[in-house]
Amino acid sequence: MSVALAIKNKLAALSPRHLSVDNESHKHSVPENSETHFRVEIVSEAFAGVRAVQRHQKVYQLLQEELAGPVHALAIHAYAPDEWQGDAPASPDCRGGSRN
Fold first, then answer.
1. Which of 24, 29, 51, 93 is buried most, with the most CB atoms less than 10 Å from its CB?
2. Are strands 73-79 and 37-43 parallel, antiparallel or unpaired?
């Protein structure tokens, strides 16, 4: 199973209204077809009334296996349904490694 699919399956526990898991590894200095850098957009009622740090902690808890292994970087954009405007900020360009 791909890392992206494992992430989607585990985040399903939060009953998201919207979930997007993007593999952004190709933007970084990693081998071709890597699954190391991800961007997650998630909208869930589980985040209502919850501070941003606690939202991230919920995601980290569900993805602890991936974060201990193949995932090097994870950008999390977590929203309660009433906060969701239909999109989240784009990830910045990679500034490290041999890309530059």
1. 24
2. parallel
